[in-house]
């Protein structure tokens, strides 16, 4: 569930990773504020309408009930790994509950209840305020290194640190063995007319 929550937040912040740091902070604040406001309204509205579980849980349980009607229970020795992870009943467990006349809601984790979901949205977003009202920053001064800026045109330049395994990258520029100039090899030397002249040298 944590992974799903992170993926949802990543979707909300999509398109903000290329912005400056200040703009990213501002975008993150307002986009998450809008998301929590909308989700909070939906959650409290569903709770006021008398729903016990979320839409996801209700849909899963209804589907499991539909599939449980075709199951005949003979033995109760099956381990359900999906239930142990999600704490949400599948059609096998609903069939067992119906066979033994057990209340299936007892086995559903509280995290799926609307009363618990609404607690997620109890927190409030404190307005950021005007920058002129912020406290003066006394920490270290960060200076941007423009040489590490991503190139807008052409192939991206490697910014990783080289080690002894990158001996080819650490050596100097290529030098032609025919004319002695840098930037090309003997096969692309402008003084070389063709393969036959290379062999003649």
Automatic annotation (TrEMBL):
PROSITE patterns per the UniProt record, alphabetical = ZF_CCHC (PS50158)
Answer whether the UniProt record assigns the keyword Zinc-finger to this protein: yes
Domain CCHC-type residue range list: 174-191
Name of the featured protein: CCHC-type domain-containing protein
Keywords assigned by UniProt, alphabetized: Metal-binding, Zinc, Zinc-finger
Cleaved signal peptide residues: none
Where is region (Disordered) located? 181-201
An example molecular function term from Gene Ontology annotations: nucleic acid binding
Keyword check for Zinc-finger, yes or no. yes
Query: Domain of life here?
Result: Eukaryota
* InterPro entries in the cross-refs: Znf_CCHC, Znf_CCHC_sf
């Amino acid at each position: 569930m944590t992974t799903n929550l992170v993926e949802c937040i990543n979707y909300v912040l999509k398109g903000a990773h290329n912005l400056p740091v200040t703009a990213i902070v501002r975008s993150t604040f307002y986009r998450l504020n809008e998301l929590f406001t909308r989700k909070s309204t939906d959650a409290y509205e569903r709770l006021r309408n008398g729903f016990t579980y979320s839409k996801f849980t209700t849909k899963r349980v209804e589907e499991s009930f539909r599939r449980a009607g075709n199951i005949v229970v003979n033995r109760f020795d099956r381990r359900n790994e999906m239930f142990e992870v999600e704490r949400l009943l599948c059609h096998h467990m609903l069939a067992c509950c119906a066979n033994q006349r057990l209340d299936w809601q007892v086995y559903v984790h509280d995290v799926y209840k609307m009363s618990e979901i609404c607690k997620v949205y109890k927190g409030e977003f404190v307005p950021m305020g005007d920058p002129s009202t912020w406290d003066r920053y006394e920490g270290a001064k960060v200076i941007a290194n423009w040489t590490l800026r991503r190139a807008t045109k052409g192939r991206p330049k490697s910014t990783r640190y080289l080690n002894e395994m990158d001996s080819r990258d650490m050596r100097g520029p290529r030098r032609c063995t025919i004319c002695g100039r840098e930037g090309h090899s003997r096969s692309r030397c402008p003084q070389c007319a063709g393969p036959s002249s290379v062999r003649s040298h």
